[in-house]
Design brief:
Blueprint: H1 12-33, H2 43-50, E1 55-56, H3 57-64, H4 68-80, E2 84-88, E3 96-100, H5 102-126, H6 128-144, H7 148-152
Antiparallel strand pairs: 1-3, 2-3
């Protein structure tokens, strides 16, 4: 059975979630068209930590609240796709730190550019004021639900 429901009938939580998914999908499609087809939406969960500066697998696991084994698996996948690499620490030769590769840095720049373009398109279509108000509202909702700290500390990830 198909339920006929309109977007405007959805609760705000679902509207925000689905709008985010739709925009993320548009970003992914544009990145793929720009030669970054290997990128996945969930890559950002790891990359957000590495882009802030080199860190060890142990530190990554702690920041993400996951086991070292899970962090190692995620990093191995990103390594296989040429987005991150491990380099010996300058302070401790036994430790390897994660770094973005040139391809990883290019991917981050491309994603930021595509998201900015999408923001500009939405502002042109719906009005810059409405987009600014929407951004302010959504930021306020994040603060209301104590998500601001997760954003500041780069600990944003989908709920389990």
């Amino acid at each position: 059975m198909v339920v006929d429901i309109k977007a405007e009938d959805l609760e705000l939580s679902l509207l925000a979630l689905f709008a985010g998914w739709a925009m993320a999908d548009r970003v992914q499609r544009r990145l793929a068209a720009d030669g970054f087809g290997e990128l996945r939406i969930n890559d950002g969960v790891v990359i957000q930590h590495v882009v802030a500066g080199p860190l060890s697998i142990t530190a990554l696991a702690e920041r993400m609240g996951i086991t070292q084994q899970a962090a190692s698996k995620a990093v191995a996948d990103l390594e296989a796709r040429g987005l991150v690499e491990r380099r010996r620490s300058t302070e401790d030769a036994r430790t390897r730190h994660l770094h973005l590769t040139g391809r990883g840095r290019d991917a981050v720049r491309a994603a930021r550019t595509v998201r900015a373009e999408l923001d500009a398109e939405l502002a042109a279509e719906f009005g810059a004021g409405r987009i600014a108000e929407t951004r302010e509202l959504l930021a306020g909702i994040l603060t209301r639900f104590d998500a601001g700290d997760a954003i500041r500390r780069r600990r944003v990830r989908p709920p389990i």
